[in-house]
């Protein structure tokens, strides 16, 4: 039993939908199809979701909404016509889009979410209709009927734990169920969306709920590459990643899947595969809990910029019980999220994303560290990048660090900071951003080309 | 103007005192002599300070104190006779020792400190007398007269900031001043000692107070070695260290000087030299604020055992604002001091000295992490050692890490954790204790023998 999810670009046109149909039909275990709203057909196209945002804004500003309604309906009409699905489904979708403009505005915390969710919801109806017309027993199912209940937090819904038992009952359905992604329903029956890009989350929740054997996430790339293709020429695609490795790579700039989306599948121990709708024969990248069989020590190399470091030194710092905690407390009170704390004996660095440090917060931190914690020196270091080498099997391979450090040294790259935790899933290096690309290339060469 | 301090073994006998006299006489800038109590003359000897502890215990238990009084007085008598200093000084010292047994016991928080301080105090009188008899204009000065005032914290006195202005006036004295180490006087006139081994602190305070050009600390070794002589055969002695480097080495097992003793000299920007009373021509190890001239990237390699690590992992840990702070808060509430926090993305390790983690505290930590912070996994890793490579000039030498990692790899030593802060004064490696000696030898070979 498999859950299969398609992203917006896989569903942007009739031609794409034909590929989707072939993929679903090809494996009778593909029983749950989670879909996004129609995405862009070409670079300059508008996503249906973005059109819905425009529609919402016009509606609450009490402007004329006819044009934008028509644009959206036409978008679906184009696909319906190309697939010869007929008038019934078009009328159903049209009504749904037009009816949005009769929802109450005042005191309706879920209005925005309801507008947005219409993109996925109507696409699911369309796709179910298309599957049925082509002889695949399929049925559109609304999250309310499916049992996907969420908290009442507009724009950032979280699944209610009770959902999982309800969802499990879907296993008994005979049809292929087509489920709109991106939203759930509150216990009061309101539409409430996950954070943007949230169709991945729906797929993950459904996979965990129906205890799927596999969660197939179809995108427009052949899986995950061992390094960014914009930096390394033709990097090889990773055949197998663990969830932990995926997290580390996603953290440092790999953005195939939104990592929060993976939690339900991770907790449900469901393996996941990332595949390409446009190249379905490519095995893609499988994401598993534990590596199967022997594998290489390093699976991928990631780099991300826009980091800064707050470097603090104080003579005899490490004798002070609570010093580190007090520093972190200052950051927390300013609602600043930190990333790493490489420490010496009398110095500590706090590495964080540059966006966390506004000029006002920066002044406040310096002032508090100097006045309350009486540090000897505090300095803000900018234009830093983080480079991560990632691989759970590093643990059993002595010499990974030597190989990496040698690569840096050979290319005259200075290591500003280093941190490797006991999990040994990754080693993190902080370097100057101007050397980031050279560093990723040097490491890729060292681990994959030699 | 120099402050010169002698440790107990340099002052244990007449023969040692003759060396001390020659050293002081050899340089007319040596104007402030800080002395310890007489130390051991041989392996099985008793230190005068330990005899004074015995004396104190007998006195407060209202036992007969005559024997122990006599032992202490005889100890000074032996030196006085050997140096032919005559009856006057012996009577002065005898009276001082005997008078201790007429101090009030009840409600006297400073009684123990007063007993202990008598070792240094009487030795200073003796040494001043000896210097004068040999034609060096010298004068014993009590900390009260000198102006060394401290907080009323028996056994852990801290200098009152006002002391420094008073001490500065000592610059105007014409004589060589002989000052007993280890204690100061409260504003109520009570004797109050620094923590044990505190003659180093007195020297450091006097040096800062009189704004000395140099603080000479005489011990019984030729300075500080680049690695522990018990691990590496005949390691070379370090000619110049910075205060920061000294701190890092002291942290990881080098114990020539108690590093807290250095604070006043460090803050006063006074350079320090560690020399050998028994080999005064050896240049020793100079400790400075900044390196003078070019120097090697790595000055020393230290290793210390008995560390443990608390390894925590939680999926999406790094998304939680305040997670790290909460972990440190748990430790702080249990009064546990931590050393390093190497982090991955979803895992953090807390490295601490094994003595900090009693079985009860360990249970409490695991329980709180599991219940309150809902971590996925927590594991205690034992038998760990920290290896540090230390050198402020690493910063300007690319390739130090590569050299170190290569040495580890060649000797099949797995790096459990790594941390390098932005100061780049040191790189810390956590390894299994069973590989500690091999690691120190490998690194020493790599940085000093090749």
UniProtKB/TrEMBL annotation, chains A, B:
Q: Where does ATP bind?
A: 5-8, 219-220
Q: Catalyses which reaction?
A: L-aspartate + ATP = 4-phospho-L-aspartate + ADP
Where, in this chain's numbering, is substrate bound? 49, 120
Among the GO biological process terms of this entry, one is: diaminopimelate biosynthetic process
- So, what pathway does this thing act in? Amino-acid biosynthesis; L-lysine biosynthesis via DAP pathway; (S)-tetrahydrodipicolinate from L-aspartate: step 1/4; Amino-acid biosynthesis; L-threonine biosynthesis; L-threonine from L-aspartate: step 1/5; Amino-acid biosynthesis; L-methionine biosynthesis via de novo pathway; L-homoserine from L-aspartate: step 1/3
NCBIfam families documented for this protein: asp_kinases, PRK09034.1
Name-wise, this protein is: Aspartokinase
Q: Which organism is it from?
A: Streptococcus ferus
